[in-house]
Specification:
Blueprint lengths: L13 H21 L3 H9 L6 H26 L4 H21 L5 H20 L15 H20 L4 H13 L3 H23 L7 H25 L1 H33 L1
Helix pairs in contact: 1-2, 1-3, 1-8, 1-9, 2-3, 3-8, 3-9, 4-6, 4-8, 5-10, 6-7, 6-8, 7-8
Membrane topology: Multi-pass membrane protein
Protein name: Probable membrane transporter protein
Pfam families: TauE
Length: about 270
């Protein structure tokens, strides 16, 4: 890799750059509201000429960490998530994310994707048939049990983020709503802090390998931060009902995306055999 390649892909034109910047803004908005912005940003990066898949993954994490930092601060100032829960959960999630990334090469994604699709369908159905879920905070645990449940979720979802990744923020939100008992806005606020930590864990692994394309990543970070700021303010202003609606849309997109991946990968294996 040349020094220029470390800042911008050599074959990338202005039209492509403007497109991925627009996608990064939209991804920041979606991610701030309910998670799942990587559904937009990562596929866009994978289409950039001259950008290897590992560079796309690493550069996506660089942009995303700025976005999650922005939405975390905005939510903290306006919603005030409980840091006594969020910070331990985030710390364990980061460690689990590093562990997941370290073993990702020996755990192929195609093993997990069919299971995740089924889980997402169950989650979407669960939320759709319970319109009052997440409308108000009603904690299911207190004291040490509350912290233990939250940290357990952080470990499981952090490990998933390291191994595979798509929809991590979405899984955090629905877990915090359905297991812990937060409303959707409080869950989104806590999820941003945890998601920042998992992004940081993955990025700490990517930077020493030289996979981050810094120039492109920093430009995407500005766009992602702008979208994240607007998205977090929108979620706070519109409330839990709005976040619930966006959540269902994002989950449907995840089901379609991962379901298509499973279909293509299954077809490829059949043809190859």
């Amino acid at each position: 890799m040349t020094l220029l390649d470390a800042w911008f892909p050599a074959d990338m034109g202005w039209q492509t750059l403007l497109l991925v910047l627009a996608v990064a803004f939209a991804a920041g908005w979606v991610d701030a509201v309910v998670g799942g912005g990587g559904l937009l940003q990562l596929p866009a990066l994978l289409l950039v000429p001259g950008l290897a898949p590992v560079q796309a993954l690493a550069t996506n994490k660089l942009a995303s960490i700025f976005g999650t930092a922005t939405s975390s601060l905005t939510f903290y100032r306006r919603v005030g998530p409980d840091l006594r829960t969020a910070l331990p959960m985030a710390g364990l999630a980061m460690l689990a994310s590093v562990g997941g990334a370290a073993v990702a090469s020996s755990l192929p994604a195609e093993v997990f994707k069919p299971i995740i699709v089924l889980v997402l369908i169950a989650v979407a159905t669960f939320v759709a048939v319970r319109p009052h879920l997440g409308a108000a905070t009603a904690l299911r645990f207190h004291g040490a049990r509350h912290l233990l449940a939250a940290c357990g979720l952080g470990v499981v979802i952090g490990f998933y983020d390291g191994v595979l990744g798509p929809g991590t923020g979405t899984f955090l939100v629905i877990s915090l709503v359905s297991v812990i008992g937060y409303n959707f806005v409080a869950a989104s606020a806590t999820a941003k802090i945890v998601n920042y930590a998992t992004n940081l864990g993955a990025l700490l692994l990517f930077i020493p390998t030289g996979a981050v394309v810094w120039g492109l990543g920093l430009l995407l970070a500005v766009a992602n931060m702008s979208g994240s700021y607007l998205g977090s303010r929108t979620a706070i202003a519109k409330g839990a009902g709005f976040v619930r609606t966006v959540f269902l849309v994002v989950v449907a997109a995840l089901i379609l995306k991962l379901g298509w991946d499973v279909w293509v990968e299954t077809g490829s294996r059949i043809v190859g055999s």
